[in-house]
Amino acid sequence: MDKKITASPIVMTTEAQDGLLVAERISVVSAQCAFGARIFNDVFASVHEDVEGRAKVVEQTMQDGVAVVMQALKEQAIALHADAVVGVAIQYTPIGYGSSNMTLISGIGTAVRLTD
């Protein structure tokens, strides 16, 4: 059974997974997505949707940022002819001061080729 991925690279936080063996580490890949905190202020000024102490709009914005970072990691893996990006770590970093606050979502991992 061939475990090699040809369509879209696998992205995972670990390097090892049952049935997937790394044949070659190609390169470190990274991606970033920045968005302004002002979006939160604008949204909360018009609609405050708070469910069980969780702000759905904020969570969705963060999830969208992570999705952008993950897609960028996959695109870099494809460009490198990699099968997967392993050891992925996501980090959230506030940048800026006052009303210009932004959040930077960063992702880093290792593009690899898997064994056949």
Structure description:
- The structure is a single chain.
- The protein is of the alpha+beta class and 116 residues long.
- It has one domain (10-114): Translation Initiation Factor IF3, CATH 3.30.110.
- Helix content is 28%, strand content 40%.
- The chain is built from two helices and six strands.
- A hairpin with a 2-residue loop joins strand 3 and strand 4.
- The model is unreliable at 1-5 (pLDDT under 50).
Q: What is Rg?
A: 18 Å
Report the structural category.
alpha+beta
The shape, in one word, is elongated
Question: Which architecture would the CATH scheme give at its second level?
Answer: 2-Layer Sandwich
How much helix, percentage-wise, in residues? 25-40%
Could you say what the CATH topology is called? Translation Initiation Factor IF3
Ends apart, CA distance between termini: 9 Å
Reading the helices and strands in chain order gives EEHEEHEE
- Major sheet details: 4 strands, mixed
> Spans of 5+ residues with little confidence (pLDDT < 50)?
1-5
How many strand elements? 6
Number of helices: 2
Name the features:
single chain, 116 residues, alpha+beta, Translation Initiation Factor IF3, 4-stranded mixed beta sheet, two-stranded antiparallel ribbon, 2 helices, 28% helix, 40% strand, elongated, disordered N terminus
